[in-house]
Specification:
4 strands
């Protein structure tokens, strides 16, 4: 589980991330995952890791224990990349990350999820903003 200050729980931040992500193209996708992200406000530049949420819907898997397994794999994979946000100047500007599982993730292994997450974070680093 992520530390409390890194968990995204505020409903308004979910809504803002989804609306801005759809409007301004602040989303990235791969075959297994979809990533929505928000930037920090200009006056909020203190070093802080982004608030993160992991979503696996019932369209992916109907059984809760399988959805929870997928979420655990996503969280473990994210933990291995968390240090990137403290060291990279471009990634320090991000305040919210929402990871959404696509239906293809149902049969994916941890390594495949890890590679997909790594590719999305690399795309995010290389994106011009």
């Amino acid at each position: 589980m992520l530390p409390k200050n890194e968990r995204l729980k505020e409903r308004y931040l979910f809504n803002v991330a989804f609306n801005i992500g759809k409007k301004n193209g602040q989303k990235l996708s791969s075959d297994l995952l979809l990533l929505y992200y928000l930037f920090k406000k200009k006056n909020d530049q203190e070093i802080q890791l982004p608030k993160t949420a992991f979503i696996v819907g019932t369209k992916v898997e109907k059984k809760a224990n399988k959805r929870n397994l997928i979420k655990r794999r996503m969280r473990m994979s994210y933990r291995s990349f968390r240090d990137r946000f403290a060291n990279n100047n471009k990634l320090k500007k991000i305040s919210v990350l929402i990871w959404i599982a696509n239906p293809n993730i149902k049969n994916a292994t941890f390594k495949q999820i890890n590679d997909s997450m790594k590719n999305l974070l690399t795309k995010l680093e290389n994106k011009q903003f």
